[in-house]
Amino acid sequence: MSAPSTEANGKRGPRGTVVIDAERCKGCELCIPACPPEVLRMSSNRNASGYLLPELLEGCTGCGACLMVCPDFCFEVYRFDPKAAEGA
Amino acid sequence: MTDPNDPLRVIPTDAPPIGACRKTGDSLPPLTLMGEHDLCPGCGEPLALRQILDAIDAMDMAQRAIGTIGIGCYTALTSLMDIDLIQALHGRAPSVATGAKRMRPETLVFTLQGDGDMVNEGLQEVIHTAARGENVTCILLNNGVFGETGGHMTATTVLGQRTKNSIEGRDAGEHGFPILIGDLLARLEGTAYCARASVHDAKGVARTRRFLDRAFESQMKGQGFSFVEILTMCPTGWFLPTAEGPDYLDQELGAIHEVGELKKDGVLIES
């Protein structure tokens, strides 16, 4: 995927994103209220085990709160590098 | 499956982003062999495990850490952990840790125990270990139920808490009062560091890590017994939907087992 559009992120642009290991997720929903910018929500998609999966909306800051509260080690957190992006 | 009328844009999360970015958080905690485990959805114990392994890794003690493990759901997490471990009998981990530390004083020795293991089965082990001032760190994962054997009441179950054998809620007249093990151990002279943390939210998880760091540092300074109690969610044992686990932990268990440092550098911290 490429860097998401900046509309929902104000002037500073997107600051981060996450990769979710869908097959490991057990749909516990702990990440949803833990997300400070409230950009995680439950989707209607299920993994092979039948668990409902979370999905990410625009506005992730890459703070890593989801990673800290995920019992199934599903989240990988990335931060965009604004300086490198400007130069590109 | 995404609703085309939904104004919010869903960001793909199946692959790392392309372009200028850096990975700031790995999905697997350090010192793990794999991430898959069979614990229930919404369990708080893997959250505590991540912080324990993170703390050991940050201290660069992976090659000199010895964990002694009690019996409980968390015992299943040992197949994930890439550090030296000893499986103790039910409740006997503090005594096993005592032996390990006395033979190898340069190592970081910790126990990983549940409330059923530490406060029911092996209460005297941890009390004597603390009273002797053994230079080990005991870590208690406290969720108020015997999770592994079906969710029965333990000695730390709070009044009013529903479990398999206190289905109307724990009643003081019938079941007695909960043991606040952290407060009990803090009063013993051999205890150098004692704290209670909770993993009900990201802030609580970060605090858990701070307390673990201080406990391990206290041990490596040779100050004496150190103890960290971590309150963890058990939505299965509490008969709750997983999403309600953190609030129940904070408001019900957290109200009785109050979070905070109880003793630091051998000095009691009065609340």
Question: Can you walk through the features of this model?
Answer:
The complex is a heterodimer of chains A (about 90) and B (about 270). Chain A has a single domain (about 5-80), classed as Alpha-Beta Plaits (2-Layer Sandwich), CATH 3.30.70.20. Helix content of chain A is about 15%, strand content about 25%. Chain A is built from three helices and four strands. Chain A has a two-stranded antiparallel ribbon with strand order 1-4. Chain A has a two-stranded antiparallel ribbon with strand order 2-3. In chain A, a hairpin with a 5-residue loop joins strand 2 (about 40-45) and strand 3 (about 50-55). The longest helix of chain A is centred in the last third of the chain and has 6 residues, at about 80-85. Helix content of chain B is about 30%, strand content about 20%. Chain B is an alpha/beta fold and about 270 residues long. In chain B, helix 1 (about 45-60) crosses helix 7 and helix 3 crosses helix 4. Chain B has a single domain (about 45-145, about 155-270), classed as Rossmann fold. In chain B, the strands form two sheets. An eight-stranded mixed β-sheet of chain B has the order 4-3-5-6-10-9-11-12, sandwiched between helices. In chain B, strands 7-8 form a two-stranded antiparallel sheet. The interface between A and B is large, with 54 and 48 residues.
